[in-house]
Structures are given as structure tokens and as C-alpha cells.
């Protein structure tokens, strides 16, 4: 592979780290990195699971590049001297791709610092460069998603688990010396609204709105 790189790419470091902290620092920078972005809403049907919804927003990014793992370190193009074994490193990438667990991809000093999965990985061996492994690799940024089962789509547990979006009524605990007029003035901005508080709490207060007791929890108008 040619040792001629642009000044910009020669300054980059590309690192891939799994959840255990095992890190791969790519020894040779690619000549270019491709990043794809789109915006859309996608719904996928997954057999035996149901629908997977991706909300509106920036579509999953695709990040890809091509480079190689050299068998022998060469300071003219290697980022560091103690480079990993090419075949063992390829095996690690294959394992990570099979696991489909999120990995942390960092390209410094750029702003790329994202969770990804390896979506494709192809390697090439050249007869005149024994031990070197050339490869193309693509990543898709990881996004947590919600899976709806067929039962849930038919009104099962999904409906039961759906959070109650109705507002929770505001309450006020009566203190010693309080009156409905004073409570309305303090909490609603107008003492004249005391009757609204009474209407909501008449069953608890009783027939006389002037007789409220400390410790009573009154429901307040919205």
C-alpha cells in the first residue's frame, strides 16, 4: 500500500472499544472515511417479534473506510510500533460482528464518538504482500429501539404498560391558621377563587367552607 497520505488523515486516530474495555487501535489510517446521514421514519417487520419503530430524526449513520493490517510495523505509515497480529485482529473483528453488541468508535480529533455495530467486513490477501490483510469495514451507529410483539399490537400488554399521560392534580395540605381565601390567594393568585377549591373538596370539608382543619389535603383547581 502507498505510504502517501494527506496531512489531515495522517493526524487521525481510529479506535474501536467493546463493553469490556478491549480496544483496537487501527494501525494504518485509511485515505478517506465515508459517513452517511439521512432523515426518515422507518418501521421494520421482524419475524416472531413484530414491528421495530425508529422515530423521526437523523437516520442511522453509516461509517465506512478501507485500510489494512500490516504484518510488520513501518513508521512511514503505521500509527504506532507495537502493531497487533493481522490474523488475530481480523478474528477479533469477526467476533465483534457476530456478537452484534455495540462498540465505541472514536475518530480523533474529529467529533466521531459513537456506539456502533459492524455491519460488513471484507478482507483481501495479496500474493506479493504475505502476512498483510487488506479490508473494507462498515459500521452503523447503534440506536436503542422498542420491539412490539404481535400480542402488544393487538392491544395486549403494550396498552397496559403505556404510561398514563393525564395530569396529576395538584394538592395543598392545610396548615394551622389557613382559610380557603388565603389558600386561593397564595396558590391561585386571587382570593376570590376560594369557591373553586371548595367545590372540589366539599365532601371533605363539609357544609361550612370556613371550617377547614390542619392536615387536610385539598385538591387544587388546574
UniProtKB/TrEMBL annotation:
Residues 170-220 form the LysM domain. It comes from the Bacteria. Transmembrane segments: none annotated. Signal peptide: none annotated. This is LysM peptidoglycan-binding domain-containing protein. It comes from Paenibacillus hodogayensis.
Amino acid at each position: 500500500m502507498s505510504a502517501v497520505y494527506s496531512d489531515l488523515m495522517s493526524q487521525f486516530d481510529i479506535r474501536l472499544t467493546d463493553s469490556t474495555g478491549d480496544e483496537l487501535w487501527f494501525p494504518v489510517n485509511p485515505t478517506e472515511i465515508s459517513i452517511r446521514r439521512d432523515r426518515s421514519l422507518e418501521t421494520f417487520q421482524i419475524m416472531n417479534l413484530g414491528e421495530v419503530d425508529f422515530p423521526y430524526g437523523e437516520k442511522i449513520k453509516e461509517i465506512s473506510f478501507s485500510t489494512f493490517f500490516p504484518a510488520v510495523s513501518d513508521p512511514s505509515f503505521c500509527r504506532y510500533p507495537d502493531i497487533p497480529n493481522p490474523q488475530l485482529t481480523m478474528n477479533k473483528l469477526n467476533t465483534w460482528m457476530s456478537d452484534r453488541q455495540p462498540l465505541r468508535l472514536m475518530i480523533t480529533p474529529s467529533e466521531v464518538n459513537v456506539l456502533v455495530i459492524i455491519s460488513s467486513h471484507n478482507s483481501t490477501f495479496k500474493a506479493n504482500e504475505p502476512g498483510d490483510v487488506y479490508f473494507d469495514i462498515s459500521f452503523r451507529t447503534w440506536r436503542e429501539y422498542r420491539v412490539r410483539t404481535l400480542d402488544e399490537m393487538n392491544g395486549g400488554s403494550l396498552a397496559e404498560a403505556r404510561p398514563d399521560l393525564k395530569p396529576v392534580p395538584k394538592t395543598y395540605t392545610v396548615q394551622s391558621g389557613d382559610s380557603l381565601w388565603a389558600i386561593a390567594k397564595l396558590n391561585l393568585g386571587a382570593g376570590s377563587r376560594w369557591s373553586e377549591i371548595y367545590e372540589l373538596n366539599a365532601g371533605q370539608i363539609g357544609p361550612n367552607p370556613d371550617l377547614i382543619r390542619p392536615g387536610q389535603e385539598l385538591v387544587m383547581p388546574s
